[in-house]
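Revision sheet: structure tokens.
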Amino acid sequence: MHAFLRRSLRPACLGLLAAASLSACRPAPPATPTTPPTVASQKHFTGVWVPTGSFDDPAGPAPWQNTPWPEHPPFTEWGAAESKRLDDHGNFKACTPSGPVYFMWEIGLFPIQLLEAPDQIVVLREATGMPRRLYTDGRAHPEDLEPSWMGHSVGHWEGDVLVVDTVGLNGKARAMNGVGANALASTEDAKPRMPSSDALHLVERLRLVANGELLEDEMTIHDTKTYTTPVVLKHYFQRRPDLDLLEYYCNDHPRDDRVVLGKTESGT
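Predicted:
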């Protein structure tokens, strides 16, 4: 069994979140501390982070709660049709790359890791072989940008907030919401699937909150092909210095039954 069960927020930590501090939940420091990197972590984003929501409680503990997906998204005609298509599990392709929004959103099964370098921040996700690269060296988006699953991301600092601009998506990613593996059902799965297109323009504002124990990602989703107005969401990750990313390959973890809103396709 995959070891994601150890990734959930520990009960003792939930009350501390409300007090904006999780320091008591951290493990004791190692006996021999590592040497600090020479370049580094000036904003202290580097580390392993776990999404705070769960299947039963996608919002996560107060006061830093994930924004619910809209019950009535502002779809265009194309967006509504694409949402309906993606809601049919016959159109779901297992192990399809997620795109940048789902990459930074999934309920707290799989952690992400941020690695800071002088010219970029690399974001790794345990369940995805593709990294995200957030370039912070002042470059612009290339004029001859080749569309891709994760797009091209450039960022700049506004104080302690990293503003990331992502364009150049190929429009092939799975829905931005919903349980990707369909191994379990979330209460959020009753809501319409949120597709994206090759017109997606994602703007993120990343900052540390709760005394640095949480990473906040405010996402503004501009996609004029899919939505009539921008969709704005916030998602939170808990810092987990006690964890490392594990090896995970989607095709090694097949699901015989897909769960739809708490029931398998056979209706049980």
